[in-house]
Amino acid sequence: MQFTKDELKAAAQLVYTQMSPTPQYAWPQLAERVGCEVWVKHENHTPTGAFKVRGGITFIDWVRRTFPNSRGICTATRGNHGQSQARAAVQAGLIAKVYAPHGNSVEKNAAMRAFGADLIEFGDDFDVAKEEAFRVAEADDLVIVPPFHKELVRGVATYAYELLSAAPDLDTVYVPIGCGSGICGTILARDALGLNTSVVGVVSSEAQCAKLSFEAGRMVETNSARTFADGMAVRIPVQEAYDIYAKGTERIVAVNDAEIADAIRIYYRDIHNLAEGAGAAPLAALMQEKDQMAGKKAAVILTGGNIDTGWFQTVLGGGVPTL
User: Fold this and answer.
1) I need a labelling partner for 124 at 20 to 30 A (CA). Which of 23, 25, 60, 164 fits?
2) How is residue 218 annotated by DSSP?
3) In a 3-state reduction of DSSP, which class is residue 304?
4) How many of the other CB atoms lie within 10 Å of CB of 291?
């Protein structure tokens, strides 16, 4: 998979029919704390509070063109992807059947329903919910929205296109990894723009399938993915995504839940922005690597701010949310 600069520009123009570009700021408070220039890409400032909204716009546009008689879509999610797909599908006059695991974020579930999703809770984790979504999509003649697809990545890549166009001299960009659309979009945007920026992936220490796969040179599954950073809570890597990040990523860093909680507090204390677990993970990784990044120019993708109130209260109180 690859994109040209013109293809990314066209994707961005499509995305901008439904939202504005998000800002990227170099925050002096974070620079003082970390010891290098720190740019934040504010994907917490989208219409759904997360970067996934971009992929929903491009994917549903593709569905309408490719399956003009389809009555709707079916997908699985931990929340942000489901909001994105429901928002775009319902706006296009389609139904959106969305599967989430039992115990999923209460507030993300409420947001998905508000955007028009027919939300069904199924299974103990994302990967089980995903299997059911694929089964139901075929049985009900709905278009399946997989966790990774060229039309999703095409939309998601526009945030990196914005960031790297605004700051082309970045040394390193830190990106969280769930199923991989974000990091792959960043790699493909960097390559399309002909830049030398290093892309560093970030995973939870409790959900390391992408890191283990990257280091082993083959797909590696894990037995569990129990982290409050639900956007990274994936047990089974995606082959198509692995094929891209295995070649285009400089390294993959693991951060634990305590480090993620600390990064959420730093975001709120230093720049008064709300970050969910996966959204804070890149900053946690940069903090972990601050010695090797000293004096350089780094960016972190704040992929979303959709954290439940109770968890945020726990974090602000100095704790770490437990499942």
Assistant:
1) 60
2) S
3) strand
4) 7
- 275, 302 contact by CB (below 8 A): yes
Spatial separation of the C-alpha atoms in residues 289 and 270, rounded to whole Å? 19
Rounded CA Rg of the chain: 18
Q: Which tokens is 50 given? A: 């997360």
123 in Cβ contact with 101 (< 8 Å): yes
- With tokens 């999509």, the residue in question is 137
Give how far Cα 170 sits from Cα of 39, 88, 253, 263, Å. Answer: 9, 32, 19, 21
78-111 per-residue burial string, b: 16 or more CB within 10 A, e: under 16: bbbbbbbbbbbbbeeebbbbbbbbeebbebbbeb
Q: Which two tokens stand for residue 243?
A: 């094929």
Q: What are phi and psi of 174, to 5 degrees?
A: -100, 130
The C-alpha angle with vertex 286 and arms to 191 and 274, in degrees rounded to 5, equals: 95
Mean pLDDT to the nearest integer, 152-172: 98
For 24-37, the pLDDT digits (tens) are: 999 999 999 999 99
Q: How far apart are CA 96 and CA 74, in angstroms?
A: 6
Amino acid code (one letter) for 276: E
- How many CB atoms within 10 Å of residue 250? 12
**With a threshold of 0.85, does the pTM exceed it?**
yes
Name the average pLDDT for the chain. 97
Per-residue pLDDT band at 323 (split at 50, 70, 90): confident
Which residues of the chain form beta strands (DSSP E)? 24-26, 37-42, 72-76, 95-100, 118-121, 143-145, 172-176, 198-204, 251-255, 297-302
Look-up of token digits 């089980």: 128
Set out the domains of the chain in order of their start, with CATH numbers: 5-51+150-316 (3.40.50.1100), 53-145 (3.40.50.1100)
Banded model confidence at residue 168, pLDDT cuts 50, 70, 90: very high
Q: Does residue 158 contact residue 15 with C-beta atoms inside 8 Å?
A: yes
The reported pLDDT for the residue numbered 20 is: 98
